[in-house]
Structure formats: structure tokens, C-alpha cells
# Entry
Amino acid sequence: MKECLRVLVKHPEWEGDRVLAIRVRCALITEQLTSVLIQQALDSEPQTPLYFIRALDAQVQDVWRTLQEPASISNNEYVLLHVYGIEVNINELALNLEQSASDADVMVRVEKLHRCLKAIEKWFQIYERIPASMAIGITFDIFFQLIHCTVALIRLTKFDSFPAWDTAEVRRRLDIFSLLDRIADAMENLSTAAGIAEDDDGEASTWSRVVKGIRLLKTGTQADFVTARDDIYTLRKKLDDMETTVTASTGGSEGVEAQHDTPITGDVMTNFGDDPWLSAIFIPWDSMNF
# Structure
């Protein structure tokens, strides 16, 4: 494979060869990352060594350097989504690094987290500008990246255990709830915009089930932000951050607590046995404690 990849990189015969070469390089980086994460899980190691994160990042930067020419490749949405997706995967590992009293270690961690956030921003900027007529043909791995980037953004938004990290800045730059609304709305209109007719038997289509899953993800995330352990001051601050207000109609803190205690139900997030495509997208994140 390495020799074939070398030939594609050095002597591409057409634009598709360049796209394939970049895609394979991204896949090889992902394979290295996955192998290490699996080994860490087997060894019960909680974090990835910083030197490994830097080594993977160096490979990604080398991929970026190959995207300078031609312009058709550097502006290819499919290529950019994959490279930014890899950047998210690598830099989000900084979330699991141990707390350190060293200023240098703190700065390195903050820098990695900011690069993760920037990559998420870029990923969604590209994804959201893809027209519906083309979005209908997006491959499975892009949808998997969509969920992965969403989960990474949720983690960055909630990462208040690291004092040097500004979660308010995360919400200002990329509000998770507005983002989930936009994604769900776009997917809801996707079938119509692409000219796809729904079944007449009333059975939910794959697209409508994905939309439902995303909306349930938003509901679950909101409930997780507002917990029964919070005092009323904290509740008000969190709800203000979500652009809502504690009013008498919610019953104050008791009303919010009651909302949190209400289970989120729906076959979309609990049973994908009849739809392997949706299972692979949602089930890995369904029980994740993010």
C-alpha cells in the first residue's frame, strides 16, 4: 500500500488520484490513532501521551502542505472535511490529559483544545455550505464525522474542570444548541430539496429518523447541562447561556429538575437493530458520558 500511495502522491494522473491519496493518508493516520486508543483501553490507561499527539499532528500538517496546489484540491469539500475531521480526532485527546501545575503544560493543552475547536468550526462551516442536491450523496464516513465533531463540541462546551479553558468562549464561537437545530432543520428539508419522495405507508424514512435522533441529542444535552444538583443561581446562569429564562411556568428550579428527571425516549436513540447505517452513526454515542 505504501508504494502505491507514494506513486499516487508523486505521479497523479488526474485529480481523483490526488483526492484518493489524501483520503488514504487520512485513513492511515486514523488507523494509528485507533490502534493506540484500543491498546490504551486494554491497558486501562486514561490518556494518550503528548508525544504521540504531536507525532500524529505532524502527519496532519504534512497533509495540509500537500493541499496548497492545485486549487481544485484545496477547495474540495470532501477532502477538507476529512482533514479537519482528523484534526478534531487528534486534538480532542487533550481533553484527557492530566492536570498540571506547569505553565508550559497548561499552554500546550489550551493550544490543542483551541485547535480542536477551530477544526470543529471549519468542519461545520464546510458541511453547512454543501447544497442539498449534493448533501444527499454524502458518504457514511462524513455522517460519522458529523456526530463525532458534535460530541467533541459538547465536551469542549462542558469542559469546566480545566480552569484555563473558557467554556463561555466556546459557546460564543459555536453554540451547540443552535448548531444542532440548523443540522436537524437542513436534514428535515433534504428529501424535499433533493426531490426524494417519502414512502406512502407512513413508515419513518432514514432521513426523518436521523432528524429525530439529532433533536433527541439536543434535548439530552440540554438536560445534562441543567442538573438537579445545581442551585438556583447556577440554573439561571446555565439557562441564560442557552438563551432561555427561568419563569413561573417552569416551576423555577423544581420545574427544571423535573425536566431533567424525565427520561428521553424514542426508538431512534435506543433501537437501531433494523438499520445498520443508523446504528453505526448513533449507537457509539448513545451511552457515552460526555
Summary: Residues 246 and 252 are 6 Å apart (CA to CA). Residues 15-43 form the longest helix (29 residues).
